[in-house]
Automatic annotation (TrEMBL):
Lineage top rank: taxon: Bacteria
UniProt domain Peptidase M16 N-terminal: residue ranges: 68-180
Protein species of origin: Gaetbulibacter jejuensis
Entry keyword Protease: yes
Protein name in the entry: Zn-dependent peptidase
Alphabetized Gene3D superfamilies for the sequence: Metalloenzyme, LuxS/M16 peptidase-like (3.30.830.10)
Domain Peptidase M16 C-terminal: 194-370
Keyword Protease: yes
Residues spanning the signal sequence: 1-22
Keywords: Hydrolase, Metalloprotease, Protease, Signal, Zinc
Pfam families reported in the protein's UniProt record: Peptidase_M16, Peptidase_M16_C
Amino acid sequence: MKKSLFTLAAFVLAGFATSAQEVEFEEFDLDNGLHVILHQDNTAPVVITSVMYNVGGKDVGGTPDAPRTGFAHFFEHLLFEGSENIERGEFMKIIPANGGTFNANTSQDRTYYYEIFPSNKLELGLWLESERMLHPVIDQVGVDTQNEVVKEEKRQRYDAPYGGILEAIGSNLFKVHPYKDPNIGYMEDLDASTLEEFNQYFKDYYGPNNAVLVVAGDIDINKTKKMVSDYFSEVKRGPEVVRNFPKETPITETIKAQAFDKNIQVPAIIATYRTPGFGTRDAYVLDMISSYLSGGKSSVLYKKLVDEQKQALAVQAVNLGQMDYSVFALFAIPLGEVDLTTLLTEMDEEIAVMQTELISERDYQKLINQFENQFVNSNSSIAGIASSLATYYLLYGDVNLINKEIDIYRSITREEIRDVAKKYLSPNQRVELEYLPQKDEN
């Protein structure tokens, strides 16, 4: 009876995920190359205007002789400075004064700006984003101001306990691809950059043909199309972005490395693997593997190392998706006097089991349920839908993944999980990174 109820519940959830998540959208292009996606949902008087640019931390600025890291993240801040028609500092005042909220974020692969307004302020949102794209003011005052803002962000986030882990992973796992450098960049690069270099970076990457505009929420499709055309058609097309990043040599022997953090007292062990970019089927399988290993307190690694054996304060398996290469990482912080090598051995045991045996049907169904729940939640708000539409278009090349991505996860078999674990997660394919407290030199 329990099995029947479990199966019925899974079936009902699957049906709910299929029907509840159907997102309708309309796409078109302006003559200048700006791709536009509209999603109408009149259930609440809210609208989001968002622009995602195909530029991220991997796109360095400067010159070939003097490349500058961190430019995309710097521009995330700089493009709030103002425009020819918006006074300095007013951008971030106009939005809350009109009942809106806003934010922006940058990854290694893209930069995303958005505003959420009452729907009667749609035109204001479109004007603000068109001003950012059409004629922002990029001057020395703004550069100097945002330089200090970025430095403070680095102090708060990257200089916090364990805040340097991603930088340590990148610098050890990648040798030639720009993923080797932190998304926020090196402060000495930003300090050395010239105003001319910043203006050139904007010209190179922030053209309408290197972006997607998403408008979602309480809109009228035809009226919105006209407003989009009115505000964005005059933006001049930018140069075509051509990328030719160097390829990494596969890792065939274990690489051992150390990194030091002055802000921690307890070390950590991290095993990192260079895996395929997030658009590949194997990347989806690795998502499921990471969830199986550490997706919640009932997961394999948490139950073993934290609950049962009391060897770890924290343990996690993460599949960090990126366009060119993803990063799969095993991470653990020891409890008491437990050795880092012991933690790594214990985690490896569970990987070895996955490489030789099929996970149970019950665990497999639990995984499917987890991903269906994530799928429902990811598109449960207008903001989530707008972000998904932009991401699937710009990075995956298929907007309709917003409706059908869950089918990819459902189609993954237990045999694929075993085979992908065996293909990518062996010790000779990784960097073993000891993340250690920095000793006081005095």
